[in-house]
Structures are given as structure tokens and as C-alpha cells.
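Figure 2 data, in text form.
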Amino acid sequence: MEDLVYQRFNAMNKHDLKAIDTLYSDSAQIESPNLQAPEKGRTGIHSVYSRYFISSPDLHYVITRILPGDSSITVEYTSTGTMKHLEDGPSYMLDKKYTLKNCTILEIRNNLIVRDVSYFDQVSFLRQVGFFEQH
């Protein structure tokens, strides 16, 4: 399972959507506090990571800890990036750099990710991109 984690993070650091897609099952689900609802299937996975890579073209991940389980693996990591392309985000976020501590739980079956649930400190992100400086 750890090999799959390293493959995923290597593909994410290359922003290689095709390689990321191959690591997920056809019915995989991805969840995160920044998503309005869970995304499903490879199309959903592709959509989520595509948005991340477009909004922060310099997005980079560094694994800090891996905790393997029986059918899941938990990964702690840091992500860094710069908000360069805002989908519908407010203009004050443009060109703001951020560094986040993250935790992702990957459920794995038949050597494919079937569920990807990520958590991060949203308040820290909002602080770094200038949200609290707005009046």
C-alpha cells in the first residue's frame, strides 16, 4: 500500500492527471472540506485535482508521515502553493502563498484507491490567503 501512496504523491507533484486517474477505482469517492459534496469516479478525481493544479500551478506536496492500516493508509503531508488562477474566488486571494498541514485517509481495494478523504486547517488557509484582512 505504501508504494501506491508514493505513486500518488509523485503523480500529484508532477500534476500528472492521467497517472493520478490510474490509481483510483472507477467508483472511487473523494471528499474534502473544500468540496461542496463528495466527487465520484475517475471523472470526479480528475476534476478535483485539475482544479487544484490550475488554481496553484506551483502546488507541491511533501509526505511527513505514513500510517498503514489493514485496508487503509493515513498520510500526513504538507502542501505549498500560490493562488494564481481563481475559479470563482475573491481577487484578494490572487498571488497569495500558502503552506498547509494535511491528513488524507486512503481506503484501498485491489491495489486501487476507492475512497480519498482529506482534512486540512481551513482557518490557516483563509488566514494565509488574506480572508481575515477583508473588512
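Caption note: The mean pLDDT is 94.
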